[in-house]
Amino acid sequence: MASSSPPAQVAPLLPPRVALAAAAGSGLLYFLAFPGIDAWPLGFVALAPLIVALRGQTPRRAAWLGWVAGFVMTMCGFYWLLEMLETFSGFPKALCLVFMAILCAYQAGRIALLGWLTARAEQRGWPFGLAFGVAFAGSEVAFPLLFPWTYAATVHQLPALNQVAEFGGPILVALTLVAANFAVAELVVARLQRRAARARLILALLALPAASALYGAIRIPMIDARVAAAEKIQVGLVQANMSLLAKRKDRSEGLRRHVDLTRDLLREGPLDLVVWSETSVMSPQREDLAPLVYRLEFASRLGVPALFGAVLVREVEDARKYVLFNSALLTDLQGQTVGRYDKQYLLAFGEYLPFGETFPKLYEISANSGRFTPGKTYEPLRLGDKGLATFICYEDIIPSFVNRIVNSGETDLLVNITNDAWFGDTTEPWIHLALAKLRAVEHRRFFVRSTNSGVSAFIDPVGRVIKHTGTFQMESARAELAWLRTSTPFSLWGELPWWLVFAASVGLAFWRRQPPAQRPEAAPGSAAADPGSEPALESGPGDEPAPPESTPSE
Fold first, then answer.
1. In this predicted structure, what is the pLDDT of residue 517?
2. Lowest-pLDDT range of 1-15, 77-91, 422-436
3. Could you tell me the pLDDT band of residue 410, with boundaries at 50, 70 and 90?
4. Which domains does the chain have, with CATH numbers?
5. pLDDT band, residue 536 (cuts 50/70/90)
6. Which of 23-32, 263-272, 308-317, 521-530 shows the lowest per-residue confidence on average (mean pLDDT)?
7. How far apart are CA 73 and CA 28, in angstroms?
8. How far does the chain reach from its first CA to its final CA, in angstroms?
9. How far is CA 317 from the centre of its chain?
């Protein structure tokens, strides 16, 4: 039960400046381990400096250290934001740098929350390891990000470590890496506390990623066998590589490229489906006329069912006058439109004006804000008796959203259409691909991604990239995939367990642990008196509680 006595406080292991440097070092290692740089072995150690730095800190100080780690990581990892802001805003580079720093300062709040929750729980008597683990999982699921990311992406190149995602998504994958980081941190903490490292604890922590890899080694051949027995499908994808300005200035050129590249694919053999990118058909069409216009313009002559991006228009009787839809349309072999999905996660101000749908008169103040409106249905698109779970742009890096679409109807294939040309020839398209790959593992289906300028890819149900394009190149590709319809634990419960973990982390932060009953003082030389034999998880010379009068404020 809760206690009114002051929370326990242990002394920090590191001096303030050293702790700050360790936190910044974690942010840098996090960036280097992340996709784009892809120094993936650092994923097993990148969090260790932060873990050591957080030991014994006050919640305020721990939040600051976490924020520093997050800010270094995001300022390095999102470096492409500066060029994007400079290109599309027209503001000077110095001002764009300020905007970038503000955004990264917010994104760093996720790691600040991790630090704060951990320190609060430690002060209330909970074991540091438990506090950090639940705070890590809770902060990953609960903190809202403009550009979502997950620590699991650091090992996107290691399929064996990713297979547990079918149980717990990217957070479960990330927690196996956290265990390895904790093992490394224990070696450092033991040295700082001048005690023997807890060998059994280290082995137990390292057993978690080892068990994950062993599960993956067993599970991958099982999935491969299922794929071998499944009904096959020939799928093509088209990457037209139209620049953002060219897409708007020469809309017919974009359509011509998509049609020509599709015909090139068909010369290599028949296809069951071809996938074009987001807004690949740029000319806006009234939504009631679009099926007829697109069938006459190109779809009836393609000779293959096609899934393509389009912009649809609907007139409305308010200050907006019209609204737009960022849509994915599916046509059959005759060019008839048989399905439509409208993007739901829209970019504020660029695609829509916040509260503009509720209060349309806001558009009289901000006339240049986007008039896109979100879709309302999660139903997969139907191609005959097969279901295509379809999502647009960065919707494919939101596990809960993809999970909802997959569960809204029978699905046999995952499809994403996107346009990453906004970010230039940077690491961002590769980061996007890495973050999206786990959707294939979570739902055990093939995944097709067609992007305007790369990276387009075919991904198999264990997260391996079968084939991918380069960036900023006009390309097409084809692959033999399989229709798969199965259910995984993650598709059933999604992120619900992690929201419960977040609730638990908040509970630990505010509910003080009852101290264990006092034991008789051990005789000198006994096992209980030897801190190197079986110490408690949080024992050590550096962890003695401070007297009540020295308890820092929170």
1. 58
2. 1-15
3. very high
4. 16-224+494-513+523-550 (no CATH), 231-313+322-343+377-483 (3.60.110.10)
5. very low
6. 521-530
7. 6
8. 21
9. 38
Question: What one-character-per-residue DSSP string does 312-344 give?
Answer: EEEE-SSTT-EEEEEEEEEE-TTS-EEEEEE--
Q: Given the structure tokens 């097993």, which residue do they identify?
A: 44
Dihedral of CA atoms 484, 490, 494, 498 in degrees, nearest 10, equals: -160
Is there a cis peptide before residue 455, judged by omega within 30 degrees of 0? yes
Single-letter residue type at 81: L
**pLDDT digit string, tens, across residues 488-501:** 999 999 999 999 99
Q: Is the pLDDT of residue 504 over 50?
A: yes
Cα 205 from Cα 210, distance rounded (Å): 9
Which pTM does this prediction carry? 0.89
Nearest to 372 by CA among 357, 352, 391, 353: 352
Q: Are 275 and 235 in contact (CB under 8 A)?
A: yes
Torsions phi, psi for 145 (to 5 deg)? -120, 145
DSSP label at residue 355: T
By percentage, how much of the chain surpasses pLDDT 90?
79
Give the whole-number percent of the chain exceeding pLDDT 70: 90
DSSP symbols for 73-117:
HHHHHTTHHHHHHHHHH---HHHHHHHHHHHHHHHTHHHHHHHHH
Closest CA to 500 of 491, 508, 488: 508
How far is it, in rounded angstroms, from Cα 334 to Cα 355? 40
| pLDDT greater than 90 at residue 247 | no
How far is residue 206's CA from residue 179's CA, in Å, rounded to a whole number? 7
Whether 512 and 124 have beta carbons less than 8 Å apart is answered as: yes
CA distance linking residue 407 with residue 409, whole number of Å: 6
Alpha carbon 208 to its chain's center: 22
Which region holds residue 463: left if phi is over 0, alpha if psi is between -120 and 50, else beta? Answer: left
Bigger pLDDT: 31 vs 2: 31
For 362-425, give the DSSP string. HHHHSTTS--B------PPEEETTEEEEEEEGGGGG-HHHHHHHHTTS--SEEEEEE--GGG-S
